[in-house]
């Protein structure tokens, strides 16, 4: 009984000290015991300050790196255009910066890049969107659990593997029934480039579809709509901003792809949109000059920065459009 009274007095002392209701002195045993319940806020504040500085430093590294890349492109591109007028860059019909009679028609490289990208988009967008619809709306949870990671593994395959697959497998197969298809061509490169970006389209689109509230589906079913009508009229429009953003990001990825087009499309700068002949994309030219014997500081060396700046502007415009689409058409649900 005595021990119970002692415990009750100690417990009451702790509570009174905690709430400041006691007139006990600060050096009493109960006040010292109450101090053990106080969290060490000063230590937490110091840790949070260190974490803020650390994380801010990491973010600053990425910003400074991006700024350095952009400034390097701007300065080197400016040096290029001091020797080559802009109108020649936009009006020449050939791209031969490594020849003695050099010409700098950027549209030769742009047309090849748009050609391979267009073929890739024709492959990736329908297949990726259909895969996303199946994963989100038709696949049961067990199938979705292993099928989506399996699809995303495809995104981890090195692009050089895709390039050799296009060159050594797809091109011989296509040549068996497409007359006139040359060994290096834009068709094979574009097809395999499209396959390589399917996971990007499917994964991002599936995330957008899966995030649509189930109440919208149930409301559609309640008024008599079928599953197909619900998907086409309710789910896809509700997830349109995410789907369009995935499409634009996939286009940016296709424009910047290097190894597949370098290995399968060849390195012959040809102006036009014939998918059966070798072409040279912007990234393929950068690879050719970077790995060759072109001396640093020469005009041919500076031309890769002009091409890189053009490529940067193209992807920047696409990213801005993607950002605008997401902000403009994003749906918010409670």
Task: Please tell me about this protein's structure.
The protein has 334 residues and is mainly α. The chain is 74% helix and 0% strand. It is built from 14 helices and no strands. It has helices at residues 2-19, 29-35, 41-83, 86-91, 106-138, 141-153, 159-175, 186-210, 214-222, 227-238, 240-256, 259-264, 282-291, 299-329. The two termini are 58 Å apart.
In total, how many beta strands?
0
- What characteristic shape results from the CA principal axes? globular
- Describe the biggest sheet? none
Estimated helix fraction: over 70%
| DSSP strand content | under 5%
Helix count, DSSP H or I runs of 4 or more residues: 14
Give the averaged pLDDT, no decimals.
Answer: 83
Poorly predicted ranges = 15-26
SSE order = HHHHHHHHHHHHHH
Query: What gyration radius follows from the Cα positions, in whole Å?
Result: 31 Å
Which structural class do you get from the secondary structure elements? mainly alpha
Gap between N and C termini: 58 Å
In short:
The two termini are 58 Å apart.
Please outline the helices and strands.
Layout: H1 2-19, H2 29-35, H3 41-83, H4 86-91, H5 106-138, H6 141-153, H7 159-175, H8 186-210, H9 214-222, H10 227-238, H11 240-256, H12 259-264, H13 282-291, H14 299-329
What tags apply to this protein structure?
334 residues; mainly alpha; 14 helices; globular
């Amino acid at each position: 009984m005595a021990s119970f009274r002692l415990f009750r007095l100690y417990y009451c002392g702790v509570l009174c000290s905690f709430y400041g209701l006691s007139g006990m002195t600060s050096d009493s045993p109960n006040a010292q015991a109450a101090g053990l319940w106080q969290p060490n806020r000063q230590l937490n504040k110091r840790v949070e300050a260190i974490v803020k500085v650390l994380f801010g430093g990491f973010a600053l590294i990425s910003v400074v790196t991006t700024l350095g890349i952009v400034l390097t492109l701007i300065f080197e591109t400016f040096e290029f255009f001091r020797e080559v007028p802009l109108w020649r860059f936009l009006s020449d019909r050939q791209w031969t910066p490594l020849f003695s009679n050099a010409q700098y028609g950027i549209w030769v490289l742009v047309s090849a890049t748009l050609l391979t990208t267009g073929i890739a988009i024709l492959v990736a967008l329908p297949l990726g969107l259909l895969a996303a619809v199946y994963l989100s709306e038709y696949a049961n949870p067990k199938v979705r659990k292993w099928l989506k990671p399996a699809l995303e593994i495809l995104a981890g395959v090195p692009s050089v593997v895709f390039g050799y697959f296009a060159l050594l497998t797809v091109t011989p197969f296509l040549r068996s029934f497409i007359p006139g298809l040359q060994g290096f061509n834009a068709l094979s490169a574009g097809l395999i480039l499209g396959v390589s970006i399917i996971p990007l389209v499917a994964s991002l689109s599936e995330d957008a579809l899966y995030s649509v509230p189930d109440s919208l589906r149930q409301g559609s079913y309640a008024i008599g709509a079928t599953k197909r009508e619900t998907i086409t009229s309710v789910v896809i429009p509700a997830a349109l901003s995410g789907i369009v953003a995935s499409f634009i990001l996939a286009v940016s990825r296709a424009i910047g792809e290097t190894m597949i087009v370098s290995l399968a499309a060849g390195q012959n700068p040809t102006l036009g949109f014939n998918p059966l002949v070798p072409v040279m994309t912007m990234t393929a030219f950068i690879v050719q000059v970077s790995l060759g014997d072109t001396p640093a500081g020469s005009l041919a060396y500076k031309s890769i920065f002009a091409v890189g700046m053009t490529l940067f502007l193209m992807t920047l415009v696409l990213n801005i459009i993607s950002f605008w689409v997401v902000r403009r058409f994003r749906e918010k649900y409670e």
